[in-house]
Structures are given as C-alpha cells and as structure tokens.
Design brief:
It comes from Lipingzhangella rawalii. The protein is α/β, with parallel strands linked by helices. Helix content is about 45%, strand content about 15%. The model has no long low-confidence stretch (mean pLDDT about 95). The chain binds uracil. The site of uracil has 6 residues, from helix 9.
Length: about 425
C-alpha cells in the first residue's frame, strides 16, 4: 500500500477502500506515515468529505489503534453522554450520578478544557483530593459499586486519534465534520459504552455555529454509533448563552451540587433531565426511575458523594475560592436581550479558569458569575457580572472581553433555539 496513492485518491474526490483506511490509520499510529502526509490527507478529507462507509471504517481503525474497554458483563446496562463543548457546561457533574441513581452504569471518559470551553476534569479537580486517573480495573469497580465514574482517558485509548487531533490542531483541519465525528466516536467506541447520547451544541460559544453544521455533525456521529451497535441518539442544544449562572471550575461544581440538592438554575435542570431520560431510554431502561425524581429525592446526591469519595475526593470539603473579585454593573434598566457565550467563555479563560496550552494549569476559583441571563429584567447599577480571579491584573482584560457581550433593551428577547431538540 502506498500513502501517496491514498492522498491522491482523496484529493481527487474518490472513495477510499476499507483496506486503504485500515492501512493508513494503522501505519500513521506506528509512525510509518509521516506527519506531513497525514496533514495532506486530512486537508483532502476536509475538502472532499467522506461517505458514511468511509467515516465508519476510519473511526473503527482509530478505535482499533488502542484498547477497547468492555463492560458487557456488568449487571447494569452502560450508557454515556458526550457534549461537543460549551461555556458553563457542567451537565456531566449532576447527570452522571442522576442516571446511575436510576439504574444505569455511566462510564464517562472526559477531557480537559482548551481555550474558551471548560473541561469536566478541570472542574472535578477543584474538589480537594479528587483524582482523574483510574486504571481500567478501578473504573470497572467504580461502575459496579457506585454506578458512575468520570475519569481521564488513558494513553491506550484511541492513540491514533490523540496523534491526529494534535496534527489537525496545527494544520487548519479541525473543522472537518468526518474528522470531528470520527475523533469523538473513536473514543466513545473504545470506552465500551452500550448506549450514547450526544449533546451537540449550536451557537456562538460552540464548535458548530449553525444549525445545519450541528445537524450534519450529529447525523454523522449517530450513523457511526449505529454502524457499531452502540444505541446512539443526539440532541441539538443552544450555546448562544452560557449554561446556568456560573462559569469556572469550582464555581460550576458548586452549581452542579445545587442541582443535585434539588435546586439550581432551570436551564441546567432541564438539560440534565432531558439528557438523562434519553440516556436511560437508549440503554433500554424505559421503566427506570425518572432523573428528575433522582434529583428531587436525594438519590442522585448520594451517588455523587460516593463517586467523589471513590476517586479520593472529599464531598464535604470547602471548594477553592478566588482571591480577588470585581463587579460589572448594568448601565441602564431593561431586559437582558443577549449574553454572548463566547465572550463569557473568553472572560473566564482570561481570569485563569482556562488554559492556552495543553500543559498549562488552571485556577480552580477563577470564573464569572452571571447575575442576569437573557429574559431577566435588571435595574441600572445592579451587578451584571462578578469576575473572580487569583491575580488582580487579569480583571481588566476580562472586563474588556465582556464590554460588548450583552445588550439591555426595553423588550424581551426572542429565543433562537428553544428547549433541547432531537436530531
Ligand atoms: N473533540 C474531539 O474529541 N475531537 C475533535 O475533533 C473535536 C472535538
């Protein structure tokens, strides 16, 4: 097999054969295909696309580059959720224990944040003592004994994707739907879940800025899951404005705990319950307890406390807080009409909640509190945002990010995307 023939075939718009796909992914994973050759192939894929058969095979080859976990022998069915990422998206934190409390096992392999979107592991690491790295045996025990686990993907999980994602990041080839879909799904297939719910975010703070791109990404991922016998469904959900009222690692853990205690912001609860119902239904648990009941009756909170303890954390320890804070006040009275997710994400990032490079550390206490969301009425001089940081000299940059992030008008906003919608 010759890599140049494969690059030329895709460059000229031809469909790659299963044998070509298996060979090129496997050869790339063992460094037998050069980075510049894979960069050329990725660019050809970005321009020419891939058929359903190609993308499915490509995903399978990437999964096969590492180990595939198997939890089929657990007494409970496995089900997971993947979000394509957004600002204030702390849904996994309450959703995992809520769904486990309803009878499923949730093996959630999560990532860290990069840029303006937060990462679930960074949030959980705000809990004193909590550790993200578990061996497959520890993961299995947690699933069997507690029902839910959120941990880091080990280096053996789809290593071809790890290598390819780093290459795409520096060659302008991240924004290819087949490459994004196969990257996400190769890790989910390797994780060994039997069912999967995809929360595909749409809007300024999301990867996908338009409904048509979000729908195409969701469709591609659902097809890959279906082709590999993972019951996969997708919801398209709004990311024009942050989820909930807190953005930043420890701040989001605190907000998720409010949801687990039966309270919390309405949008966080609505999304948690909608995704939880889909996860249970995809796992075939149609007669299970409702996730809304698990949040209200304390059973989700019990699972959360056990989950945190199982990974070395103390669920009763006070969460870290930032040393400095400042408020931004409303310049006029009216109704908040727009509150841009991307600007809030960038502000939280510049306060220290996010990282520029993979190896950077993040501040647990940094972030933004949103005192008003679209549709809320405010009075002039009331606080709109509180900014939290460990370093006072970060406040000015964050405030600048937020300058044009919102509008206050006399009339209420029209919602661009309503409640979570099925694909
Ligand atoms: N997340 C992934 O895991 N892969 C992508 O390509 C994009 C987002």
């Amino acid at each position: 097999m010759n890599v140049i023939d494969i690059i030329v075939a895709k460059r000229d718009g031809r469909e790659l054969t299963p044998a070509q796909i298996d060979w090129v992914v496997e050869a790339y994973a063992r460094d037998a295909v050069a980075e510049e050759q894979m960069a050329a192939l990725s660019m050809a894929v970005l321009w020419r696309g891939m058929s359903r058969a190609e993308v499915s095979r490509w995903t399978e080859a990437m999964t096969r580059s590492g180990t595939r976990l198997d939890f089929a022998d657990l007494p409970r069915p496995t089900t997971d959720k993947h979000s394509t990422g957004g600002v204030g998206d702390k849904i996994t934190l309450a959703l995992t224990p809520a769904v486990a409390a309803c009878g499923a096992a949730v093996p959630q392999l999560s990532g860290r944040g990069l840029g303006h979107t937060g990462g679930t592991l960074d949030k959980l690491e705000a809990i004193p003592g909590w550790r993200s790295h578990l061996s497959p045996t520890e993961m299995r025990s947690a699933l069997r004994d507690v029902g839910g686990v959120v941990c880091a993907a080990g280096p053996d999980l789809a290593p071809a994707d790890r290598k390819l994602y780093a290459l795409r990041d520096v060659t302008g080839t991240v924004e290819s739907i087949p490459l994004i879909a196969s990257s996400i799904m190769s890790k989910k297939l390797a994780e060994g879940t039997g069912a999967l719910v995809l929360d595909v975010k749409v809007g300024s703070g999301a990867f996908m800025k338009t409904m048509s791109d979000a729908r195409a990404l969701a469709r591609t991922m659902v097809d890959i899951g279906t082709d590999h016998e993972v019951a996969t469904v997708a919801l398209l959900t709004a990311m024009d404005t942050p989820v909930g009222r807190e953005v930043g690692n420890a701040r989001e853990v605190a907000e998720a705990c409010e949801v687990l205690a039966g309270g919390g912001p309405e949008d966080v609860v609505e999304l948690t319950v909608a995704l939880g119902r889909e996860m249970l239904s995809a796992a075939g648990l149609t007669a299970a307890k409702d996730p809304a009941t698990a949040l209200a009756d304390g059973s989700a909170m019990d699972v959360w406390r056990r989950m945190v303890r199982a990974q070395g954390g103390d669920p009763d320890a006070p969460l870290p807080t930032a040393r400095e804070h400042a408020q931004i006040l409303a310049g006029r009275s009216g109704v908040v009409r727009r509150l841009d997710a991307l600007a809030v994400g960038r502000a939280a990032w510049s306060l220290g909640a996010g990282r520029d490079r993979k190896e950077d550390s993040v501040s647990a206490g940094a972030g933004v509190r949103l005192h008003a969301k679209p549709g809320d009425r405010i009075q002039a001089s009331q606080p709109l945002f509180t900014l939290y940081t460990d370093e006072a000299d970060r406040l000015q940059d964050a405030a600048r990010e937020l300058t044009d992030s919102y509008t206050v008008e006399d009339v209420a906003p029209d919602h661009t995307l309503g409640p979570p919608a099925s694909l």
